[in-house]
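Filed under: proteins

Residues; backbone shape codes:
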Amino acid sequence: MTPALHVRRLARRARRDDGSVSLLLVGAALMGFLVIGLVVDGGGAMSAQSRADYAAQEAARAGGQQIDPAQAIPGQAIIVDPGAARAAARAYLDDEELEGSVTVSEDGQTLTVTVHGTYDALFTSLIGKSTINVTGHGTAHLLHQAGG
């Protein structure tokens, strides 16, 4: 076999592979874009979840500080007013323009706040998921102390 014939055969084989590398690169780029999108949107959703938990806990703290001054000031008892606690937590959510619910347990000892929010997705909106729902929870135990 002459060197010229060998070169022609190699050239023919190379033409059969035309475009195969570019297809591989397109697939790899698409997968890279997908992974980056999931990382960005996943991180954003986790951050939104953290903010919702923080806001719920802060609202619960605001409610937990609503002691009855008529009994606390003279030193009779430290009692949290469940109605005032609920109102204070609700006021915190309203001030922060958050949606959520505030409940006080039947025994009046626990205040629970739930905050609902959304994260507006950047990348996953391209595949039809434009928002990710997040929910935060906060709890305050309404302590009572008899006799100051």
